[in-house]
Structures are given as C-alpha cells and as structure tokens.
Amino acid sequence: MSTKKKRSAHTKSDSWVVIAPDSMLHTGSSEDSDPAFTKLRNPATEGSSLYLFGRGDDSVYEVKAFTEEFRSWFIKQTVQRDGKLLIVTPIDPLFLLLPYIKSAATEGKFQPLKQMVMDEVYPGCTRLLQCKQGLDFIHHVADEKEVGSLKFHRYNQEKTMDWLKKKVQRTVTTLKKSNVSVGGGVKSSTFVRVKQEADAREEDYLRYAHGLISEYISEDLSKDLLKHLQLPEISSPKETEPPSKKRKLSDKPVEAGEDYTKFNSSDFARKPPKKMTAAQKTLAKVDKTGMKSMASFFKPFTNTFE
Amino acid sequence: MSANSCVTSVRLDSIKQADKPQVHLLPCEIEHDGPAEVSAFFTPTMKERKHEVSVSFRGRGMKGHELNCPQGYTGLVLKEVQKPASDQEDRIVKVSSVFHNFTYWNLETPPTSDDGVVRAMEWPMLAEAIHGPVDK
C-alpha cells in the first residue's frame, strides 16, 4: 500500500453516481418493465459484465466505471465516499448475440435464434432478442432462411467481417473528428495527451479503432478482423514482462475460477512475430499505449452494486 | 439459481420527485457516507476567477472546473430502496437526484482537458460510433 495513513474499510455503498443517456430515461408506456441492470457474458472475455436493459428491453446499454484513487462526492448536503462515476452508453446488441450465433455454427445448420441464444449461466441473454437493433440487423452476421412464418439463421464469417470492418470505418471517422489522440501523441502510460498530431496516419486510426472494437469481440475474431483490414499483427514491447504484471495491466473483468488469460484480448498482440522493422517497433510502442490509455479509464463492470 | 439471474431495476417514475443538487467530485477520499454541512463550510469559500474556480478545503487549496454532462446525457444519483437480504434477490434502486453539470476539483494542479474525468465525458461520443447501427 502506498498510503501512509491506513484508511478504514469501505462499507457497502447504497448509492451510485451515474451518467446515463436520455433515451434510457424516457418513461414510455406504463406497461413496459423498468430499466434493469443485468449481468451478461462479456463477448471479449467470456466473463461476467454488467449491462442495462432499457424500458421494455428494446435496447441494451453497457456500464463502464470511471474510477480514480482518492475521490469522493459531495451531493447537495451529503458526502458519498465512493468517488466512482458510472457511465451508461448504448451497446450494439449484435456484439452480445454474436458469440451465441457463432458457437452454434459448429453444426453448420440453420437454427431458430431462440435455440441459439440460451445460457444457463446468464439467463438474461434471452432479453437481447427483444432489442430492435439486434433482430433487425442479424443479417449482418448470419444467413437467413424463412420457412413459412419461421426464421432460421446460420453464422456467416464473411458477413461478420464486413460488418466489423464497417464498424471500424465508422469509428475512424469519429476519431478523426474528435481530439482523441491515436498516434505518436500518446507516449506515456500515465497518459499525457499531446494535441492531435497532424501526421497521425491512416493506419494509426485503423489500429486504434480496431483496438476499440476488439473490446467487444473474441480474440479469434479480433485477429481475423486485423487480417481483413490488411493490417499486419504487431507485437508489444511489453513482451518481456512477467505474467503477473501483464494481468495487472489488463482492464478486463476478472472472473475467479476461469482461465481468463486465455480470453484476454490484450494478450493476443503479444506473440512475437518473426521479424520486425524499426518502423513497426515504433508503431507497436505507440499503438499499445494508445489503445490502453483509452481502455484503462473504463473498466467494464463485474460487481457494481456492492 | 445463480446470482447472475438477479437484476437491479431502476424505478423510473421516481425521477419526478428527484432533487437537483449541486454535485462536486473531490480530489480526496472522505471516510464518511452521510450528511455534511456542504453549504455552510464548502460552497461559501468558492471563488471564481476567469475560468477557474478555487476553494479552500481543510486548509488545502483546490482548483475546480464545471463540467457539463455530454449532450443527450443526464447525471443521476441512484439509491437503493431496500437492502436485499441476500445476493440471490432482485434489487431496486430509485433516482434520488438528477444533475446536468458538476464541478470536479483537483488538488493544486489546474484543471485541463487531459484530466481523466474530462476524457471520460468523451466516451459517449466514441461509444455512439462503435455501437450505432451499420447501414444495410
């Protein structure tokens, strides 16, 4: 512990500060169920993360926590010791449905979605089938067959890659308009941002966007996407670090009793390639910190309400 | 039944009764949850000069900056209505407060756009790019 004075133990908080989209707050029809925080399988880590279903389950949101050490809130005339800020943002339900659809593909046959999207550990996943942006867009990741009034689906890797590529392109467009630094401006792990560099290259944007999208897909898909984007795999300069340190760097939620390292997407870039040019090495350095710095601010949540 | 099947629902109708408090994010951990005389001892010492607010708190000078919630977003304080008896139960929270801006405070260092909490406010814009629907 770095603190000189011993801090008293945290008691369980019963109050949370949240930034939430207005779409979640629309009261809508009174018959609809209230918004609900639910644990679902994280598509990148396969561990547990917290999500939120909007009213009537028509949309789903991700819950990220912004935490800094030594922060507390004043709210009107009260102190809230826990200085955490939760940020609720929309998540594309296809990201959450994809692992189910993909794993059902091993049989290679068309199946009803209801049959694919089932999970004993996370029964809440069936609510994803109510989300508009899920069902209406399923053709982005699967072939569709209609027999009478019934619809059947089968995972399609090519379509999925095209869909993910479009996601990356959308993200690149937004990054270019924003003042998020994707390239050489990001140098230190403590994150000191230098103003957007004019020479941030297209590849820097692509890699950064790929890193952001990879937070929502499996390691395998992330690698496939890299190929689809025609970006070579690069290794990280942190290769030589001991495994224990690697784990600490990870911003993925940790599930006890699960081999999470296997699914940890931040590990995939660390395999040494045969040869690296000096330029690639520099890029590897820049890139890794760039992706990390954004991701490390926001920890996908495992146990918010504790 | 596993704990993963439990949900925490947000009682949205409570938003009508929610208050609109002043909210401050402090650069220190206060080992207390509960009432405090913020308006008697904290707010009156706030001084505004140009774009910077400063305050003296327990003899320490702090510099602050008012942050708006990102466009299309609202700040909420959620409060648990009733403590559950076990972790196998559904839980209910209500919206006890609503806010559209808050002041974050730094110890000594003047607030800049590189501060973590400022950057956190950029996340919704990025999330929209990552998660918005892709055309047919």
Automatic annotation (TrEMBL), chain A:
Keywords: Nucleus. Residues 30-92 form the Rnh202 triple barrel domain. Residues 95-225 form the Ribonuclease H2 subunit B wHTH domain. Its main location: nucleus. It is found in: Nucleus. Residues 236-261 have a biased composition (Basic and acidic residues). The keyword Hydrolase does not apply. Non catalytic subunit of RNase H2, an endonuclease that specifically degrades the RNA of RNA:DNA hybrids. Participates in DNA replication, possibly by mediating the removal of lagging-strand Okazaki fragment RNA primers during DNA replication. Mediates the excision of single ribonucleotides from DNA:RNA duplexes. Belongs to the RNase H2 subunit B family. The RNase H2 complex is a heterotrimer composed of the catalytic subunit RNASEH2A and the non-catalytic subunits RNASEH2B and RNASEH2C. This is Ribonuclease H2 subunit B. It comes from Triplophysa tibetana.
TrEMBL record, chain B:
GO terms for cellular component: ribonuclease H2 complex. InterPro entries: RNase_H2_subunit_C, RNase_H2_suC. It comes from the Eukaryota. One of its GO terms (biological process) is RNA catabolic process. CDD domains: RNase_H2-C. PANTHER family: RIBONUCLEASE H2 SUBUNIT C. This is Uncharacterized protein. The lineage of its organism: Eukaryota, Metazoa, Chordata, Craniata, Vertebrata.
